[in-house]
Amino acid sequence: MNKQALDIMVIGGGGREHAIIRTLKKSPMARKIYALPGNGGISLDAECVNISATDLEGIVEFAKNNKIDFAAVIPDDPLAMGLTDMLREIGIPCFGPTKDAAIIESSKAFAKQLMQKYGIPTADYRVFTDPDEAIAYIGGHSLPVVIKADGLALGKGVLICQTHEEAEEAIIDMMRGGKFGKSGSTIVIEEYLTGPEVSVLAFTDGKTIVPLPSSMDHKRALDGDMGLNTGGMGAVAPNPYYTDEAMAQATERIIRPTIESMNKEGRTFKGCLYFGLMLTKDGPKVIEYNCRFGDPETQAVLPLLESDLLEIMLAVENGTLEETEVKISDKHSCCLVLASGGYPEKYEKGKQIIIDDFPADVGIFHAGTKLENERFYTSGGRVLGITAVRESLKEAVGAAYEAAKHIEFEKMYMRHDIGKRALETCDKQ
C-alpha cells in the first residue's frame, strides 16, 4: 500500500466525526485533515471549513482547489445524495458507499424488500404510500406497532405506538402533516420485536467483512429508557448480550448475506455498514441498517480500535481489506452524552461550557459546540460525548461519569444509567 502523506477531507460536524478525526490523526499517513463543516472542538484537531455537509457542489469545488487526496464521507444525507460518486468522478478516492448502495438506509422500504427477497431475518412489515390504506391496515394490527418514515429523518423517523389511536395519529402526522417532509410520504408499518438490542458496525469492501466491537446504544432521553427517542444518549462496548453464539448467528444469517445480496443487486457496498439488531427468542433479526458509522456508537467503539483507521479506510476503497490487519483492544468503553436541557425537542444554544481539570485518560468528543474567543459554547442538542476506556465495563462507566463532573454548562443534562443494563447482564454471566 502506498504510504505517502495524504491531505484528507472529512465530511460532517458531530461527535461521531470528531471521534473519526481524532482516530485518523494517529495515522502516520495523515498529513492534513480538513473538516467540512466541523465544529468548535473539531477545530482543535482539524482545519474546519464552513461548507455544509449537504453542499455537494461546494465540497467538490473545495476538494479540487485543495488537491484533496482522500475523502471520508460520514453523514447519511450526503451519502444518500451521491457525494462519493461525485468525488470519485473527479478522481478523489473516498470512504463511503455510492448513492446506489446508500439506499439501504435512505429507503427503509428498499431495505425491507431486500431482506424479504434474500431471506434475511427481520420483522414482518407492509409498505404504504396511501394514508387511508395505512390507517385501515393499522386498525387490525397487534400492539405495540412500529411506524417508520421511509426516508432519512435524523434518527427520529421511527415511532413505537402503544395504541391504535396513537398509530393512526403517527400515520396522519407523517403522510398528511409532512412531519418528516418527503421522508414520510411512504411509510413502513412493522411488527414490534422484543429482546436486547445490539449495534454492530462493520467495515467492508464488498468482499471482506470486518466487524468492530458490538455496542449498546441508549436512545431514550431519560433514565430507565423513558422519554422521547433521541439520536442516542450514550453507548457501551462491547455489548454483553452479543455472545459468541449470537455473533455467529448474526454473521451467518444477516451480516454476510446482506453484503452478498447487495452485490447481487448491483449495489456493492463499500464503507461502514451499521446493523441494528434485535436478539429475539428466534435469533437475531434486523431492526435497521445504516449506511455509515452510528452515533454515539462510534464514540464508544473507535477508541477500542488499535489499527490505523486511515489504512483501513484506504483498503476498503481499494478492495484490499482482506490483506489489512484490524486489531481490536479487549478493553471496555463507555460513552456518556452531555445534552442541552430540552433536547430532543426545543433547547437553548449559546451556553458557555466550562471544562475544568478534565482527566487526560478520558476522551472528550465535541458534537454541538462552537469556539469563540477561545471559549466553547453550546450549539446543538447533543453537546459533548465523554468516552472512558478501561479494563472492565464497570470501571469504564465509573470513569465516564467521574469525568463528567469536570464539565458544566447551563441546563446541562445526561442520563444517569448508561451501561446499567449491560452491567446487570455482566453480573449474571
Number of helices: 13
How would you classify the helix and strand content by structural class? alpha+beta
Q: N- to C-terminal separation?
A: 43 Å
Give the CA-based shape.
globular
What's the total count of β strands? 25
Helix content: 25-40%
Largest sheet: 6 strands, antiparallel
Mean pLDDT: 95
Residue fraction in strands: 25-35%
Residue windows where pLDDT falls under 50 for at least 5 positions: none
Radius of gyration: 21 Å
Q: Could you please describe the fold and organization of this structure?
A:
The chain is an alpha+beta fold and 429 residues long. Helix content is 30%, strand content 28%. The chain has 13 helices and 25 strands. It has helices at residues 15-24, 56-65, 76-81, 83-89, 99-106, 108-118, 131-138, 164-176, 244-264, 297-301, 309-318, 393-404, 420-428, and strands at 6-12, 30-37, 47-48, 70-73, 94-95, 125-128, 145-149, 158-161, 187-191, 197-204, 209-211, 216-217, 220-222, 226-229, 234-237, 271-280, 283-290, 332-340, 352-355, 362-366, 369-372, 375-378, 382-390, 407-408, 412-413. Strands 12, 15, 18, 20, 23 and 25 form a six-stranded antiparallel sheet that branches. Helix 7 packs antiparallel against helix 8. The longest helix has 21 residues, at 244-264. The chain is globular.
